[in-house]
Amino acid sequence: LLKELVLTYHENVLSFDFVSLDYNDPGKNHYAYKLSGFDREWNEVGNQNMATYTNLNPGKYVFMVRGTNSDGIWNPVPAELKITIIPPVWKTWWFFAILAGLTLILVRSIFIDQKRKVQKEKELIELQLKSIKSQIDPHFAFNALNTMAALIYENEPDTTYDYFTRFAYLIRNILNDNEKISRSLGEEIDFVKNYLELQKIRFKDKFEYSIFIDPGISAETPIPKMIIQSYVENAVKHGLMHRPKDGQLSIWVEKTGYCIRIVVTDNGVGRQKAAGLSTGSTGKGLKIMNRIFRLYKKLYHTDIIENIEDLTGNDGKPEGTRVILELYTLPQPHKTTWINFLKPNKHDT
Fold first, then answer.
1. What is the DSSP string of 97-141?
2. CA 84/CA 118 separation, integer angstroms
3. Residues of the chain under the 50 pLDDT cut
4. What does residue 175 show for φ and ψ, rounded to 5 degrees?
Protein backbone atom coordinates (compact mmCIF):
# COMPACT_ATOMS: atom_id res chain seq x y z
CA LEU A 1 0.00 0.00 0.00
CA LEU A 2 1.48 3.37 -1.10
CA LYS A 3 2.20 5.55 1.95
CA GLU A 4 4.23 8.41 0.45
CA LEU A 5 4.42 10.15 -2.91
CA VAL A 6 7.27 12.41 -4.12
CA LEU A 7 6.56 14.66 -7.12
CA THR A 8 8.33 17.43 -9.04
CA TYR A 9 7.04 21.00 -9.06
CA HIS A 10 5.52 20.34 -12.54
CA GLU A 11 3.34 17.57 -11.08
CA ASN A 12 1.15 19.87 -9.03
CA VAL A 13 -2.33 18.83 -10.23
CA LEU A 14 -3.56 15.87 -8.18
CA SER A 15 -6.77 13.79 -8.34
CA PHE A 16 -7.76 11.18 -5.77
CA ASP A 17 -10.34 8.37 -6.05
CA PHE A 18 -11.43 6.55 -2.90
CA VAL A 19 -14.04 3.95 -1.95
CA SER A 20 -15.47 2.41 1.21
CA LEU A 21 -15.03 -1.34 1.68
CA ASP A 22 -18.72 -1.76 2.59
CA TYR A 23 -20.45 -3.01 -0.57
CA ASN A 24 -23.89 -3.78 0.93
CA ASP A 25 -25.35 -0.48 -0.27
CA PRO A 26 -22.62 1.71 -1.85
CA GLY A 27 -25.02 4.60 -2.38
CA LYS A 28 -25.23 5.09 1.38
CA ASN A 29 -21.48 5.30 1.88
CA HIS A 30 -20.43 8.89 2.66
CA TYR A 31 -16.96 10.42 2.53
CA ALA A 32 -14.89 13.28 3.94
CA TYR A 33 -11.37 14.31 2.90
CA LYS A 34 -8.74 16.88 3.80
CA LEU A 35 -5.36 17.87 2.34
CA SER A 36 -3.25 18.87 5.34
CA GLY A 37 -1.09 21.83 4.41
CA PHE A 38 -3.82 23.18 2.13
CA ASP A 39 -7.29 22.62 3.64
CA ARG A 40 -8.16 24.04 7.03
CA GLU A 41 -11.29 21.94 7.52
CA TRP A 42 -12.57 18.53 6.43
CA ASN A 43 -14.54 18.47 3.18
CA GLU A 44 -17.71 16.40 3.68
CA VAL A 45 -18.87 15.44 0.17
CA GLY A 46 -21.68 12.93 0.69
CA ASN A 47 -21.30 9.87 -1.56
CA GLN A 48 -18.91 11.65 -3.96
CA ASN A 49 -15.69 9.64 -3.98
CA MET A 50 -13.23 11.88 -5.86
CA ALA A 51 -11.13 14.96 -4.99
CA THR A 52 -8.98 17.19 -7.22
CA TYR A 53 -6.36 19.85 -6.38
CA THR A 54 -4.70 22.13 -8.95
CA ASN A 55 -1.59 24.36 -8.93
CA LEU A 56 -0.29 23.17 -5.58
CA ASN A 57 2.80 24.99 -4.36
CA PRO A 58 5.97 23.03 -3.59
CA GLY A 59 5.89 21.67 -0.06
CA LYS A 60 4.75 18.79 2.14
CA TYR A 61 1.12 17.64 2.33
CA VAL A 62 -0.89 14.75 3.79
CA PHE A 63 -4.07 13.63 2.03
CA MET A 64 -6.54 12.11 4.50
CA VAL A 65 -9.87 10.45 3.75
CA ARG A 66 -12.47 8.71 5.85
CA GLY A 67 -15.82 7.12 5.07
CA THR A 68 -18.92 5.49 6.48
CA ASN A 69 -20.54 2.14 5.93
CA SER A 70 -24.14 1.81 4.80
CA ASP A 71 -25.25 2.26 8.42
CA GLY A 72 -23.60 5.70 8.61
CA ILE A 73 -20.77 4.68 10.96
CA TRP A 74 -17.48 6.53 10.23
CA ASN A 75 -14.19 4.70 10.27
CA PRO A 76 -12.27 5.90 13.38
CA VAL A 77 -8.85 6.32 11.69
CA PRO A 78 -8.62 8.08 8.30
CA ALA A 79 -6.48 6.66 5.49
CA GLU A 80 -3.43 8.85 4.82
CA LEU A 81 -1.03 9.49 1.94
CA LYS A 82 2.04 11.70 2.44
CA ILE A 83 2.87 13.91 -0.55
CA THR A 84 6.02 15.93 -1.19
CA ILE A 85 6.21 18.36 -4.12
CA ILE A 86 9.86 19.26 -4.70
CA PRO A 87 10.50 22.96 -5.49
CA PRO A 88 12.41 23.99 -8.64
CA VAL A 89 16.14 24.31 -8.17
CA TRP A 90 16.02 28.12 -8.38
CA LYS A 91 13.75 28.26 -5.33
CA THR A 92 15.94 26.20 -3.02
CA TRP A 93 17.99 27.81 -0.27
CA TRP A 94 21.25 26.28 -1.43
CA PHE A 95 20.76 27.74 -4.94
CA PHE A 96 20.53 31.24 -3.45
CA ALA A 97 23.51 30.54 -1.20
CA ILE A 98 25.69 29.45 -4.15
CA LEU A 99 24.66 32.39 -6.33
CA ALA A 100 25.17 34.83 -3.45
CA GLY A 101 28.65 33.40 -2.86
CA LEU A 102 29.57 33.65 -6.55
CA THR A 103 28.25 37.20 -6.69
CA LEU A 104 30.36 38.20 -3.71
CA ILE A 105 33.46 36.64 -5.31
CA LEU A 106 32.81 38.56 -8.54
CA VAL A 107 32.36 41.85 -6.68
CA ARG A 108 35.52 41.28 -4.69
CA SER A 109 37.61 40.41 -7.77
CA ILE A 110 36.44 43.54 -9.61
CA PHE A 111 37.45 45.87 -6.80
CA ILE A 112 40.78 44.12 -6.22
CA ASP A 113 41.57 44.58 -9.90
CA GLN A 114 40.83 48.33 -9.64
CA LYS A 115 43.60 48.79 -7.09
CA ARG A 116 46.21 47.63 -9.60
CA LYS A 117 45.67 50.52 -12.00
CA VAL A 118 48.16 53.21 -11.09
CA GLN A 119 49.41 55.75 -13.64
CA LYS A 120 49.92 59.52 -13.69
CA GLU A 121 48.83 61.98 -10.99
CA LYS A 122 45.27 62.23 -12.33
CA GLU A 123 45.04 58.45 -12.59
CA LEU A 124 46.38 58.18 -9.04
CA ILE A 125 43.52 60.38 -7.80
CA GLU A 126 41.07 58.26 -9.80
CA LEU A 127 42.55 55.16 -8.19
CA GLN A 128 42.10 56.71 -4.75
CA LEU A 129 38.46 57.39 -5.53
CA LYS A 130 37.90 53.87 -6.86
CA SER A 131 39.63 52.40 -3.84
CA ILE A 132 37.34 54.37 -1.55
CA LYS A 133 34.30 53.34 -3.57
CA SER A 134 35.39 49.71 -3.24
CA GLN A 135 34.86 50.11 0.51
CA ILE A 136 31.26 51.23 -0.04
CA ASP A 137 29.97 48.86 -2.73
CA PRO A 138 30.92 45.59 -0.96
CA HIS A 139 29.55 47.12 2.25
CA PHE A 140 26.16 47.39 0.55
CA ALA A 141 26.55 43.89 -0.91
CA PHE A 142 27.15 42.38 2.53
CA ASN A 143 23.97 44.05 3.87
CA ALA A 144 21.94 42.64 0.98
CA LEU A 145 23.38 39.14 1.41
CA ASN A 146 22.52 39.23 5.12
CA THR A 147 18.93 40.08 4.22
CA MET A 148 18.73 37.18 1.75
CA ALA A 149 20.10 34.85 4.39
CA ALA A 150 17.35 35.99 6.78
CA LEU A 151 14.64 35.41 4.16
CA ILE A 152 16.03 31.94 3.43
CA TYR A 153 16.01 31.17 7.15
CA GLU A 154 12.37 32.32 7.36
CA ASN A 155 11.56 29.93 4.46
CA GLU A 156 10.17 32.59 2.13
CA PRO A 157 11.39 31.32 -1.28
CA ASP A 158 9.21 33.59 -3.44
CA THR A 159 10.21 36.73 -1.55
CA THR A 160 13.82 35.60 -1.58
CA TYR A 161 13.70 35.07 -5.34
CA ASP A 162 12.24 38.55 -5.89
CA TYR A 163 14.85 40.04 -3.58
CA PHE A 164 17.68 38.20 -5.33
CA THR A 165 16.47 39.39 -8.75
CA ARG A 166 16.51 43.02 -7.61
CA PHE A 167 19.86 42.56 -5.89
CA ALA A 168 21.32 41.00 -9.04
CA TYR A 169 20.22 44.08 -10.99
CA LEU A 170 22.09 46.32 -8.57
CA ILE A 171 25.20 44.14 -8.64
CA ARG A 172 25.16 44.18 -12.46
CA ASN A 173 24.86 47.97 -12.28
CA ILE A 174 27.85 48.15 -9.91
CA LEU A 175 29.95 45.85 -12.09
CA ASN A 176 29.10 47.73 -15.27
CA ASP A 177 30.02 51.05 -13.62
CA ASN A 178 33.06 49.81 -11.73
CA GLU A 179 35.40 52.00 -13.81
CA LYS A 180 33.29 55.10 -13.25
CA ILE A 181 33.76 57.68 -10.52
CA SER A 182 30.60 59.53 -11.48
CA ARG A 183 27.37 58.62 -13.22
CA SER A 184 24.29 60.43 -14.45
CA LEU A 185 21.63 61.66 -12.06
CA GLY A 186 19.10 59.39 -13.78
CA GLU A 187 21.27 56.30 -13.22
CA GLU A 188 21.81 57.21 -9.57
CA ILE A 189 18.07 57.69 -9.00
CA ASP A 190 17.28 54.34 -10.66
CA PHE A 191 19.87 52.68 -8.42
CA VAL A 192 18.38 54.33 -5.31
CA LYS A 193 14.83 53.26 -6.26
CA ASN A 194 15.87 49.63 -6.58
CA TYR A 195 17.81 49.86 -3.31
CA LEU A 196 14.78 51.28 -1.49
CA GLU A 197 12.49 48.56 -2.88
CA LEU A 198 14.94 45.98 -1.50
CA GLN A 199 14.91 47.71 1.88
CA LYS A 200 11.10 47.80 1.91
CA ILE A 201 11.13 44.02 1.51
CA ARG A 202 13.81 43.73 4.20
CA PHE A 203 11.91 45.87 6.73
CA LYS A 204 8.41 44.58 5.84
CA ASP A 205 7.17 47.91 4.40
CA LYS A 206 7.92 49.87 7.57
CA PHE A 207 8.47 52.98 5.49
CA GLU A 208 7.45 54.74 2.28
CA TYR A 209 9.52 57.04 0.12
CA SER A 210 9.08 59.88 -2.37
CA ILE A 211 11.48 61.35 -4.93
CA PHE A 212 11.29 64.82 -6.47
CA ILE A 213 13.61 65.91 -9.30
CA ASP A 214 13.63 69.54 -10.43
CA PRO A 215 12.36 69.53 -14.05
CA GLY A 216 15.17 71.96 -14.87
CA ILE A 217 17.86 69.36 -14.12
CA SER A 218 18.87 67.03 -16.94
CA ALA A 219 18.85 63.32 -16.13
CA GLU A 220 22.29 63.20 -17.77
CA THR A 221 23.81 65.56 -15.17
CA PRO A 222 26.95 63.83 -13.78
CA ILE A 223 27.22 63.40 -10.00
CA PRO A 224 29.53 61.28 -7.81
CA LYS A 225 28.50 57.64 -7.94
CA MET A 226 26.61 56.44 -4.82
CA ILE A 227 26.34 59.98 -3.40
CA ILE A 228 22.56 59.79 -2.91
CA GLN A 229 22.46 56.07 -2.14
CA SER A 230 24.99 56.37 0.68
CA TYR A 231 22.91 58.94 2.58
CA VAL A 232 19.66 57.13 1.82
CA GLU A 233 21.17 53.92 3.18
CA ASN A 234 22.25 55.77 6.31
CA ALA A 235 18.73 57.19 6.80
CA VAL A 236 17.16 53.73 6.51
CA LYS A 237 19.68 51.89 8.69
CA HIS A 238 20.04 54.42 11.49
CA GLY A 239 16.73 56.27 11.43
CA LEU A 240 13.79 54.47 9.86
CA MET A 241 14.66 50.91 10.89
CA HIS A 242 14.15 51.85 14.55
CA ARG A 243 10.59 53.11 13.94
CA PRO A 244 7.84 50.50 14.40
CA LYS A 245 5.89 51.83 11.38
CA ASP A 246 4.92 54.88 9.29
CA GLY A 247 8.46 55.74 8.26
CA GLN A 248 8.83 58.43 5.60
CA LEU A 249 11.84 59.18 3.41
CA SER A 250 11.99 61.98 0.85
CA ILE A 251 14.64 62.81 -1.72
CA TRP A 252 14.72 66.25 -3.36
CA VAL A 253 17.10 67.26 -6.13
CA GLU A 254 16.95 70.95 -7.04
CA LYS A 255 19.01 73.39 -9.07
CA THR A 256 19.68 77.03 -8.30
CA GLY A 257 22.16 78.82 -10.50
CA TYR A 258 25.37 76.81 -10.49
CA CYS A 259 24.36 74.76 -7.46
CA ILE A 260 22.69 71.36 -7.45
CA ARG A 261 21.16 70.69 -4.06
CA ILE A 262 20.32 67.15 -2.89
CA VAL A 263 18.14 66.89 0.21
CA VAL A 264 17.51 63.56 1.96
CA THR A 265 14.96 63.77 4.81
CA ASP A 266 13.69 61.03 7.11
CA ASN A 267 11.35 60.93 10.10
CA GLY A 268 13.44 58.37 11.94
CA VAL A 269 14.48 58.37 15.58
CA GLY A 270 17.21 60.97 15.13
CA ARG A 271 20.98 60.70 15.29
CA GLN A 272 21.34 60.80 19.08
CA LYS A 273 18.93 57.94 19.74
CA ALA A 274 20.22 55.99 16.73
CA ALA A 275 23.74 56.15 18.12
CA GLY A 276 22.55 54.35 21.26
CA LEU A 277 20.54 51.75 19.34
CA SER A 278 22.89 50.83 16.49
CA THR A 279 25.41 48.06 17.05
CA GLY A 280 28.50 47.51 14.97
CA SER A 281 28.17 50.88 13.20
CA THR A 282 31.36 52.91 12.88
CA GLY A 283 30.12 55.74 10.66
CA LYS A 284 32.73 54.61 8.14
CA GLY A 285 30.46 55.07 5.12
CA LEU A 286 29.89 58.80 5.64
CA LYS A 287 33.55 59.38 6.50
CA ILE A 288 34.42 57.78 3.17
CA MET A 289 31.97 60.10 1.41
CA ASN A 290 33.73 63.13 2.90
CA ARG A 291 37.04 61.83 1.55
CA ILE A 292 35.42 61.36 -1.85
CA PHE A 293 34.23 64.97 -1.77
CA ARG A 294 37.77 66.21 -1.22
CA LEU A 295 39.23 64.06 -4.00
CA TYR A 296 36.33 64.82 -6.34
CA LYS A 297 37.09 68.53 -5.96
CA LYS A 298 40.73 67.95 -6.99
CA LEU A 299 39.74 65.97 -10.05
CA TYR A 300 36.59 67.76 -11.30
CA HIS A 301 36.83 71.19 -9.60
CA THR A 302 33.46 70.65 -7.96
CA ASP A 303 32.89 71.76 -4.38
CA ILE A 304 30.56 69.53 -2.38
CA ILE A 305 29.22 70.87 0.92
CA GLU A 306 27.49 68.60 3.43
CA ASN A 307 25.12 69.90 6.09
CA ILE A 308 23.22 67.60 8.50
CA GLU A 309 20.24 68.89 10.49
CA ASP A 310 18.54 67.22 13.45
CA LEU A 311 14.78 67.75 13.08
CA THR A 312 12.62 68.28 16.17
CA GLY A 313 8.92 68.76 16.85
CA ASN A 314 7.18 71.52 18.77
CA ASP A 315 7.87 69.59 21.98
CA GLY A 316 11.58 69.50 21.25
CA LYS A 317 11.67 65.75 20.67
CA PRO A 318 13.64 64.34 17.71
CA GLU A 319 11.59 63.87 14.53
CA GLY A 320 14.23 62.73 12.09
CA THR A 321 17.24 63.96 10.16
CA ARG A 322 17.82 66.07 7.06
CA VAL A 323 21.00 65.87 4.98
CA ILE A 324 21.70 68.71 2.54
CA LEU A 325 24.37 68.23 -0.12
CA GLU A 326 25.32 71.14 -2.38
CA LEU A 327 27.40 70.62 -5.52
CA TYR A 328 29.03 73.77 -6.93
CA THR A 329 30.58 73.52 -10.38
CA LEU A 330 31.93 77.10 -10.23
CA PRO A 331 33.73 78.92 -7.40
CA GLN A 332 31.56 78.67 -4.31
CA PRO A 333 29.35 81.70 -3.54
CA HIS A 334 29.56 83.48 -0.21
CA LYS A 335 28.57 81.13 2.59
CA THR A 336 25.44 83.10 3.46
CA THR A 337 24.04 82.77 -0.07
CA TRP A 338 22.84 79.18 0.28
CA ILE A 339 21.11 79.98 3.57
CA ASN A 340 18.92 82.52 1.78
CA PHE A 341 17.55 80.04 -0.76
CA LEU A 342 17.24 77.05 1.60
CA LYS A 343 13.59 76.37 2.44
CA PRO A 344 13.52 73.76 5.22
CA ASN A 345 9.73 73.54 5.47
CA LYS A 346 9.51 72.49 1.83
CA HIS A 347 11.30 69.25 2.55
CA ASP A 348 9.51 68.28 5.78
CA THR A 349 7.85 64.89 5.63
1. HHHHHHHHHHHHHHHHHHTT---SHHHHHHHHHHHHHHHHHHHHH
2. 57
3. 117-121, 124, 127-128, 135, 332-349
4. -65, -40
- For the stretch 182-224, pLDDT in tens is 889 999 999 999 889 888 887 888 899 999 999 989 999 998 8
Contact status, residue 20 vs residue 67, Cβ threshold 8 Å? yes
CB atoms under 10 Å from CB of 12, counted, come to 14
Radius of gyration of the chain (CA): 29
Query: Is the separation of the CB atoms in 104 and 145 below 8 Å?
Result: yes
H or E segment to which residue 323 belongs = strand 318-328
How far is Cα 6 from Cα 120, in angstroms, rounded to an integer? Answer: 64
What is the distance between the alpha carbons of residues 146 and 134, in angstroms, rounded to a whole number? 19
Q: Is the dihedral of CA 279, 280, 285, 291 positive or negative?
A: positive
Predicted TM-score (pTM) above 0.85: no
Handedness of CA 236, 241, 242, 247 (dihedral sign): positive
Mean pLDDT of the chain: 79
58 within 8 A of 37, measured Cβ to Cβ? no
CA–CA distance, 320 with 248 (Å, rounded to integer): 9
As a whole number of angstroms, the distance between CA 184 and CA 138 comes to 21
Helices of type H across 249-329: 271-277, 284-300
CA angle, residues 190, 194, 198, in degrees to nearest 5: 165
pLDDT tens for each residue of 139-178 = 667 777 777 777 777 777 777 778 888 888 877 777 776 6
